[in-house]
Amino acid sequence: MRCNQLKLKKKGAKINQIGGTLIPKIQFINIENVVASVKINQRIDLSKIAQTKAKTEYNPEQFPGLVYRIDEPKTATLIFSSGRMVSTGAKSVKEVYKAVNKIVSELQKSEVLGDNVEPEIEIQNVVASASLGAELNLELAAYTLSDVIYEPEQFPGLIYRMKDPKVVILLFTTGKLVITGAKKEEYIRVSVEKLLQTVTELGIIKT
After folding, report:
1. What's this model's pTM, rounded to 2 decimal places?
2. DSSP string spanning 28-71?
3. CATH number, domain containing residue 91
């Protein structure tokens, strides 16, 4: 499975100076998907793309957009005739820019787009997975963390809305996490490190 593993600071378990609590080490942080919106100030002939490009899906009777797939970086981009696009599947912000520029270049070669096209790219959502390396007491987390949703009868994870950075984190008893809603890659690492400190201080980590 292709993913972008964020670099972690080299630090193992350590003793919390306040309570003498053992703090586990973050096992991994992987970026799984980066979603970006793209704006091109040109109308796009989707029928022409569908006729000239093999890895496309276009059925205007069911959906107004065309799906444009490329292998490197492996992404799927929704393209609309208005010049709007939505890029999905990239494993980093760098890959988003690489994919969009590659698509623009290919469309220019096919004479679907004119010259001097400068796409406006805006990152909408960075999704990542992570592991805190320790089990969590979600019942205690539901009582001590603010802005959470925890309904174990319907979903096994706890939904935690962190305000700074502004992300949504799904917590599971295993210590695994899913982070979504980040606008920048660095927000992922910051939010995981902040969460680890918080759950340690509140005694949510099972010992």
Report:
1. 0.88
2. EEEEEEEEEEEE-SS---HHHHHHH-SSEEE-TTT-SSEEEEEE
3. 3.30.310.10
Residue 165 and residue 192 in one domain: yes
User: Per the omega criterion (within 30 degrees of 0), is the bond before 152 cis?
Assistant: no
Q: Which of 96, 118, 140 is the last residue of a domain?
A: 118
Rounded Cα distance, 20 and 143, in Å: 23
Percent of the chain whose predicted confidence (pLDDT) is above 70? 89
Does the pLDDT value for residue 13 go beyond 70?
Answer: no
In this structure, the answer to whether residues 146 and 195 fall within a common structural domain is: yes
Distance CA 2, CA 131 (A): 17
Query: Looking up tokens 């799984």, which residue turns up?
Result: 32
Query: What per-residue confidence (pLDDT) applies to 10?
Result: 38
The single-letter DSSP state of residue 10 is -
Domain boundary among 87, 118, 149: 118
Classify residue 51 by its DSSP letter.
Answer: H
Residue with tokens 């019942």: 139
Residue 17 confidence (pLDDT) = 41
- The verdict on 53 and 80 lying in the same domain is yes
Q: Mean pLDDT across the chain, nearest whole number?
A: 91
Residues 188 and 151 grouped into a single domain? yes
Distance CA 181, CA 127 (A): 7
Section 18-32 average pLDDT:
77
Range of the domain at 53: 41-118
Longest C-alpha distance within the chain, in Å? 66
- Token pair belonging to 108: 């220019």
